[in-house]
Write a structure and sequence with these properties.
single chain, 83 residues, mainly beta, 4-stranded antiparallel β-sheet, 7 strands
Length: 83
């Protein structure tokens, strides 16, 4: 998988008028702790270069484990995750 791919997926969800960002959420590894994951609606994140933001928190893209639709369909998944 090429570098930055998850950001491209998120950009499409957030900025393509054919998509509704309210239909998507991300699963992140919270604070780098194995097994400590958090589900965040895409509508609450702001994309940056190398990081995304939730309010004042800056989180690196490499913490994203999955991008999913509300219906359970996985649209992007990190390789070699240990969940």
């Amino acid at each position: 998988m090429r570098k930055g791919f998850v950001k491209e997926v998120l950009s499409k969800i957030k900025y393509d008028p054919r998509e509704d960002e309210e239909d998507y959420f991300i699963i992140i590894e919270h604070r780098g702790a194995f097994g400590n994951v958090k589900k965040i609606p895409v509508k609450y994140i702001t994309l940056g270069h190398g990081y995304f933001f939730i309010e004042d928190a800056q989180i690196p893209y490499h913490r994203i484990l999955k991008v999913m639709r509300k219906d359970g369909k996985v649209v992007w998944e990190k390789r070699n995750q240990h969940l």
